[in-house]
Write a structure and sequence with these properties.
With 145 residues, the chain is an alpha+beta fold. The chain has 2 helices and 5 strands; from the N terminus they run ααβββββ. It has a 5-stranded antiparallel sheet, with no helix packed on it. It is globular, with a radius of gyration of 15 Å.
Length: 145
């Protein structure tokens, strides 16, 4: 990544400097999860997060999170807002597929919780006057191309 992309990312995403790996597609996302320990039940403030959930900043347990990478392509200024639901699911469904090339996954960071070993997807929904951080557990079985 060249310096211009780093500056662009820092302006669009204030944590871009913490995330060094671009996860480009479903295969790369699966690869990023390879060798991960089995997730455990977690009793932290995040809760189950099986579908997208609004998550106030005070509930994000930053001390136990480590950045894995970003699904956001640093060369694309405006990622698509098109969603992918081949089985007729909806955005807020726990059964919705995780499609890295589609919204909201194309705007997500991937995180690892060191307490429960879960991997999480996180992005910020910007709508009007509202800024809404959202999180969803990363279920490898739901990743599609």
């Amino acid at each position: 990544m060249h310096l211009g992309a780093c500056i662009f990312n820092a302006q669009k995403n204030p944590i871009a400097h913490l995330i060094v790996k671009h996860i480009a597609n479903a295969a790369a996302l699966r690869l990023a999860l390879t060798g991960a320990a089995a997730p455990q039940a977690c009793r932290c403030a995040l809760g189950a997060c099986t579908a997208w959930e609004s998550l106030a900043e005070y509930r994000w347990e930053a001390a136990q999170m480590s950045a894995v990478g970003s699904l956001r392509d640093p060369t694309v200024e405006e990622p698509t807002l098109e969603e992918c639901h081949p089985q007729g699911t909806r955005y807020d469904s726990p059964n919705a597929p995780i499609a890295p090339g589609f919204f909201p996954y194309n705007q997500c960071e991937v995180w690892h919780c060191t307490r429960c070993e879960r991997h999480l997807l996180r992005y910020t929904e910007f709508g009007g006057y509202n800024v809404d951080p959202r999180v969803r557990v990363l279920d490898a079985d739901k990743i599609i191309d």
